[in-house]
Amino acid sequence: MRGRMGGMPRLIHKRTLSLILIGVAIVGCSSPYHYTNGVKPVIKQLEAYKANNGVYPSDLATAGITLPEAGYGGWKYASLDNNTRFSLSIGDYGRNGFVLYWDSIYGNWTMDD
Fold first, then answer.
1. Is 71 within 8 Å of 35 (Cβ atoms)?
2. Mean pLDDT across the stretch 34-57?
3. With CB atoms counted within 10 Å of each terminal CB, which end of the chain scores lower, N or C?
4. What is the DSSP letter of 68?
5. Residue 63 CB contacts under 8 Å (≥ 6 apart), including other chains
6. What is the CATH number of the domain that holds 95?
7. Rg of the Cα trace of the chain?
8. Residue 76 is assigned to a structural domain of this protein
9. Which residues contact 25 (CB under 8 A, 6 or more apart)?
């Protein structure tokens, strides 16, 4: 029968289904964890800076470090507790409903959502 697939009415055109599947794949790749690989070199640079200077830089420009491009508003750096620790974060509660961050004390990624 024309317009039917396997006895079911043909509701979605093949091209439309392909576009939906592509969209789902793209959205799946935009997880905030996807961006953590790009910032790993920054973490290593910050650890090297502390090894040479005894503290983390108060800002990234001081250390000559540039954060990579990222979605969700981009990466944010914060020097904490008199430059004895730092955090890198991405996301915004108001806009994205989450914040993903790295804290140098714990040495791992944490998602607050």
1. yes
2. 95
3. N
4. P
5. 45, 46, 49, 57
6. 3.30.1300
7. 21
8. yes
9. none
Average pLDDT of the segment spanning 79-91:
96
Note whether residue 7 is domain-resident: no
Q: At residue 91, what are phi and psi to the nearest 5 degrees?
A: 105, 170
- Residue 77 identity (one-letter amino acid): Y
Confidence of residue 29 (pLDDT cuts 50, 70, 90): very low
Tokens of 17: 């289904």
Residue with tokens 């690989």: 37
Cα–Cα dist 46/89, whole Å: 14
How crowded is residue 49: how many other Cβ atoms within 10 Å of its Cβ?
20
Residue 61: the pLDDT is 96
Backbone phi, then psi, for 45, in 5-degree steps? -65, -40
Cα separation, 44 vs 65, in Å, equals 11
CA 85, CA 78: separation in Å to the nearest integer? 9
Could you tell me if 49 and 63 are in contact, meaning their C-beta atoms sit under 8 angstroms apart? yes
Domain presence at residue 14: no
